[in-house]
Predict the 3D structure of the following.
Amino acid sequence: MTTDRRALFAAHAYLPQGWQRDVLLRWNDEGVLTAVSAATRAPADVACARGPIIPGMPNLHSHAFQRAMAGLVEYRAQASDTFWSWRDLMYRFAARMTPERIEAIARWLYVEMLKAGYTSVCEFHYVHHQGDGTHYPNVAELAQRVVGAASQAGLGMTMLPVLYEYSGFGMREPRADQRRFLNTPDTLLDLLTVLRRAWPEHGALKYGVAPHSLRAVSEASLKTLLAALNVDFRGAPVHIHIAEQTGEVDECIAVTGARPVAWLLDRVGVDARWCLVHATHVDAAEMTALAASGAVVGLCPTTEANLGDGLFPAQAYLEAGGRIGVGSDSHIAVDWRSELRLLEYGQRLAQRQRNVLASEARSQVAERLFQAALSGGAQASGRAIGALAPGYRADWLVLDPEHPSLDGRQPDSWLAAIVFCEHGGSPIVDVCTGGRCVVEDGRHEGEAAAYAAYRKAAAELLA
């Protein structure tokens, strides 16, 4: 009997309404779910999932090239070691990137993401030019390499070319080690147009923009970029770093007279297409206004902890109706379960309580955070992902029912077990994107070749 390759039956699946039994998924040739039915019988010609299935997680913030420097800066280089000293080291690393190296690093990272259960990524891409700041003959060379790496790995992508103009508030001249990042609104839009022509948008690929931060762009440039975006890329996602460091907040107040998030909300039409990455240091008024805007806050707890950023007021923000998603950012860890775990644990340490981010509607912390990260990540991606429902991308993870964290437990505790338990390796055995299995038995189909290229690139960078 021929097996229907566009259908899957699962004894248990996590649907928008929660865990359901005996679920049949069907999708089309474009990799979009067309039907999701619970409490049904398994057709004879349909394969059965080897365990419970859950939606794949969107990763809403990534700087792919930084994967190769993970673990290399865990030492004190000066009396006071902060984000700013880390940034100096990162810039030196970025200076050695070539098109071949950035592609190899990105491809291996995206394999790692898929194995960890991320099925899409928002790539905040800011290394654009040659080492001396001149453009490559193809102005979109490096961005195309990164988009190609995601395509090869089978990872969905929202590509966000970054606008970077200045070294600090007050339109300070850029530093020499920032020249690879620099664009004007016009040259960035030209880059984006070339990129979209080479790699047209489809179900697994979306484009947006990322003004790097308020310290790196002027108000005039920000508004010019957004106006042009509304003409040529209407509805495209907009991501920005903001209020990550107290020094950044203090300087913004000194130069503009306002806190960063307050300034942005007051001067620009922030709405649901925006993702404010980090937003760590917001006051109560900013938090309330940000929640009301409909924007997503992009939280990266492992990177924020690694850089000593601080703790976002997640409990109050979620209670105000705020939307969140998670990202791996500098890739000191590549695991959405670690991000959710650390998000909750940070609140527990600060408040000396347990289960802080539970709510009256969802007493299970892991379930509340999982749902929030799925919907917030999907919104920030600008793509129909993050749910097992008709019209959404056919992206899912298959869990091992015999994993030590799951075996013998009831479905209502499965998410808590995989988020808060760290036993016996990953509970994810298979990963599918667009209805195609790209990770089977914990191994990616292109893993060996991707790792060989990564090893070569890493060795050259460290030589």
The chain is about 35% helix and 20% strand. The mean pLDDT is 95.
